[in-house]
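Each lists sequence, tokenised fold; shown next:
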Amino acid sequence: MGARRASEDGDRRIGRRALIVGGVAAAAGTAALARDELGRLWWRVPGVEKPREQGAVDFAGARWVAASDANWRRADRPDDYGVDMVIVHVTQGSFDSAVRAFQDPGHKAATHYIVGQDGRVAQMVRELDVAYQAGNRDYNERSVGIEHEGFVDRPQDFTDEMYEASARLTARICARYDIPVDREHIIGHVEVPGTDHTDPGPHWDWDRYMKLVRRARTGTA
């Protein structure tokens, strides 16, 4: 009888927790299903944070440099928001100035990655989180953003090293989320509805870039 009581108490505790995450587990009717649902949804409980490995990166060639918490919001993509797009940006400044901007809580914007003219890659927001990068909430939630060091009116800023490093990064993102390698899913910031930005600008070589991404994607596959 004591064992049965303990089991019932456990089931009641599971039921109470299930109510916190919207009653999904309670409606299931069994403790086993309740536990399964809680395992999937527990991170949605207010005040609970999903574990993150300090300094971990999503792209092996990147170095972690954290953006300010004010410039992105926590999520669990692609489980809560499907990722089906990569957005190409240009910093309108140096690599270091972009890092400083994204670490400034007053800036209110950041991308997931920055690619330098020398091919180095910094990751500043985890891919599972939503970066404030596109000026459009829907596009923010469904995309990974990549900044590129340089100015839109200076074609010499877009170096071979930058194109190649960015293409490898984009190919890996496309492979991870099964994103088609085409211009409907790999777009410039200027193509985001409602934006007032012009990047990556007229000197960004889309034909070259997409060929590099396709080649890297084939290698990734």
In short: Strands lie at 62-64, 72-73, 85-88, 113-115, 121-123, 130-131, 143-148, 186-188. The mean pLDDT is 84. The CA atoms of residues 158 and 204 lie 7 Å apart. Helices lie at 2-20, 24-28, 31-41, 95-103, 137-142, 160-177, 206-220.
